[in-house]
Write a structure and sequence with these properties.
Two copies of one chain form a homodimer. In chain A, helix 2 packs across helix 6. The first copy, chain A, is an alpha+beta fold. Chain A has three domains: 270 residues, BirA Bifunctional Protein, domain 2; 99 residues, Rossmann fold (3-Layer(aba) Sandwich); 80 residues, 2-Layer Sandwich (Translation Initiation Factor IF3). In chain A, a hairpin with a 5-residue loop joins strand 12 and strand 13. At the A-B interface, strand 2, helix 2, strand 3, strand 4 and strand 5 of A face strand 2, helix 2, strand 3, strand 4 and strand 5 of B. Strand 5 of chain A pairs antiparallel with strand 5 of chain B.
């Protein structure tokens, strides 16, 4: 199986596709721009989903479900919102054999349908805060699609909250950004830069968009989650006022925030290698796979020994399986489980058995360690924990090594290998640069290098002094520029 | 709050709507025929979902996700299937601002899109069985809708499996029917009759449809879940052949099976009363609510005592909450939690506290029991378990009392209060009758009484002898006839 995977050096895009298809994570579908998430891909999403869901509930949110179809007129109520989403809509014009009086779009996001309901539900400050999350499918008609990373239909969660005050809404926006950062870094082992989007890059309808930005192995950025402070924009669009504590009447303050199945793509791209998928133990359907090695005369005893090891691992709460399929060789199985990304392999042969040992093999480093069978559960648990940490640290090191401070436009053009710089093979990365705040500078850089302003990192915005790396005007912010998915 | 609920005797339909709206389980939406599932309704669905999901995985199934949009031409590949679903389709004709070359429908069910993929994935008997489940939203354009029970968009799961042999596929169909029966009866406390549908009532595209049928408090039937043996119909429609163990080539055998958010409606209608929702402990977001009763001078000590009780319950793994809201009276809270259906209420006042006791109040029977505080967790656990059993037994008794053996057409017409029988106030129920197997008899009865053939109960089909209750011809089956949702 492993030879089916194109090496990253040869063709990074093809490497990614080869892993997704060969590890059976997803498949192309006969529906334009839409993918099928296969069981092993969906199992990763389920684990991501469960952890986020736990964290959302822990922070006081409840799940609910709103209609997938939205009257077209609803989108038009918020001017920036419709402008941003209109080009990407799928539109239902017939229902039950009849042409509809008003067409519906399939939700590209649910602010409008949700705020039309919030108008019914919110009357007084006693109804606030309203903290609702929805797990759902959405459709955004995309021209260029890529498995998991960008598909016309995708699965996501969208939080939509309503608050009494601006301060509370901003606090919520940042609280959820922090939940995102924490889960993506600790559970998915994907390091991120939390920051603020520029006006150009913010969500259509938001006052301010916060983001977590990650770096893939080709040094491109991938937006891993966003949290929006919506101000009173949607409350005004849907006329949602509430009686304040002092008897007045005011518009409600809002947030929304989302992560999607693209995170599965982020995980694949961040950790995998030329042998296939590499998964953090938290996300792998199996943490450990046991592969027995035997000939006819040793089969029964090796399998019995392997069963005992399996029982010990399960007893310790480790998600372990035994691959006792007789129709393929141990070597074939090694390659197969490496392709599938199982974090830890345990090899058991007659000699291991005779010595009262097993062989632990790490997927991430290929490191082999003989372990006494009595300590197999404890050592596995310890090793899995080390893998979880190591994956994150390796990715962070890579990200940091490819984050470069850049002070001038020529440097920036060289960094991204712009035409005429003679650095067409420059691989780019994250350019950390001072910025004047002008959209023209952003647009100009994008035209020359395809790099966009990914975010203004939080906690790097103090004491800004110096000049914009792009135009030389006085700088207002420090920003990360990068090519992106 | 409680006075908002129309009594069942006055208007059963309105009673149901009042409970759904006042207990904030769901709401009407601005999208025709679609509902919003509010947090307390969605929490019930999440618990139903989790239990089914666990059981599906236990029986070897994996979750996956297929596109929501299906090319219209796919539906036409199976003649009965398209005939059954075409009148209910929502059709997408525009995407990304352009008219689509081929329109897509929003899935009304996913056999066609899934079997188009199974063609890619299944080549050999080694690829079988393929056991996949999907949790998804579907759209069937409905003219008459009812919250939870029938809405144009609803949430469901659909299992789609592929097998080597007919026998295996039939075994799977029945296995999943049994999972449905067990979860619906034991977890939802809704008694059901498992049986086979008639040709008239079977799924469009199935060879045979199995069902579990429940009885609501107005004695109408509600189909709670179906499991279909699809034969080779979809394998032939999508040309899915596999290499057999003996080197031949054959079409694959298939099943599909589904339950939906209508089960939430079934739970509400089966257990609730004129005070509001009644929920089995398994499904309630809170198993126990503690309501403290105090005056100013006893407030601090009662709350401290209540906190201790809360801790004891939580310690024992019971989902308990303390309603310490100061802005409403205990009496108002009692009514509110009765409306919400919390199975067990614990009242704690100064006198209870002085006696080292608390007062347990069952939602289902209103029975009050003073309990020594030291045993509160054990007694609550025991009482919750009794409620779970009692709800099922009460519903089964009601169902059995309203299941009547009927031998002749005049009796049948009287039972359902058909015109001209002088029994317009007959309330009907389940009519258990012998049946000749003819669709004409079914259609005739439906025209006269609105009653349909709900199912031919499994295990009641042996030694059939006698005459069809409808036409007098020799009987082939025993069937349940009822009006239905």
């Amino acid at each position: 199986m492993a030879e089916k995977i194109t090496p990253r050096e040869t063709d990074y895009s093809q490497w990614y596709i080869d892993i997704v298809l060969n590890a059976k994570l997803a498949d192309y579908s006969p529906v334009k721009g839409c993918m099928v998430i296969r069981p092993r891909g969906y199992a990763i999403w389920e684990r991501i989903q469960a952890e986020f869901d736990r964290r959302f509930k822990e922070t006081g949110h409840s799940n609910a479900y709103f209609p997938m179809l939205i009257p077209m007129s609803f989108l038009q109520k918020e001017a920036e919102h419709v402008e941003g989403f209109a080009p990407e809509l799928a539109v239902v014009t017939y229902g039950g054999g009849e042409k509809l009086e008003e067409p519906y779009c399939i939700r590209p996001t649910s602010e409008t349908i949700i705020w039309s309901m919030y108008k019914e539900w919110i009357h007084s400050w006693r109804d606030l805060p309203l903290l609702i999350n929805q797990w759902a499918n959405v459709v955004r008609w995309e021209k260029r699609t890529r498995l998991f990373l960008r598909t016309s239909e995708f699965l996501w969660q969208e939080g939509h909250t309503a608050h009494e005050t601006e301060a509370e809404a901003i606090e919520e926006t940042l609280r959820m950004l922090e939940v995102y950062r924490d889960v993506v870094e600790r559970y998915l082992c994907v390091p991120v830069v939390p920051g603020v989007k520029s006006e150009t890059e913010k969500f259509a309808g938001a006052v301010r968009t916060y983001t977590i930005e990650s770096m893939m192995q080709d040094r491109k950025a991938l937006q891993a989650g966003t949290s929006h402070f919506l101000g009173q924009n949607f409350a005004k669009a849907f006329d949602v006022k509430y009686q304040t504590r002092d008897g007045g009447l005011d518009y409600v303050w809002a947030t929304s925030w989302g992560i999607s199945t693209r995170l599965v793509g982020a995980v694949i791209m961040t950790h995998s290698d030329d042998k296939g998928l590499v998964l953090p133990p938290t996300l792998s359907p199996e943490e450990v796979v046991i592969v027995p090695i035997y000939k006819n005369d040793s089969k029964a005893s090796v399998l019995q020994y392997a069963d005992k090891v399996l029982a010990m691992l399960k007893e310790a709460g480790i998600r372990a399986i035994l691959d006792s399929d007789d129709s393929s060789s141990p070597g074939w199985k090694f390659a197969e489980w490496e392709l599938k990304g199982t974090p830890l392999r345990i090899e058991i042969g007659p000699r291991d058995m005779a010595a009262g040992k097993v062989m632990l093999v790490r997927r991430d480093t290929a490191e082999k360690t003989p372990v006494a069978v009595d300590t197999v559960a404890a050592t596995s648990r310890q090793t899995l924990s080390e893998i979880q940490t190591a994956l994150f640290e390796r990715a962070r090191k890579f990200r940091d090594e490819n984050t470069v401070q850049i002070d001038t436009l020529p440097e920036m053009l060289e960094f991204f290998g712009a035409e005429g710089t003679g650095t067409a093979d420059a691989h780019g990365g994250f350019a950390s640069a001072l910025w004047c705040g002008s959209a023209e500078c952003e647009a100009d850089l994008k035209a020359k290098t395809k790099a966009t302003l990914r975010c203004m990192p939080l906690n790097q915005q103090e004491n800004i002094s110096g000049r914009c790396a792009l135009c030389g005007a006085p700088a207002k912010h420090r920003a990360i520029f990068a090519r992106n998915y």
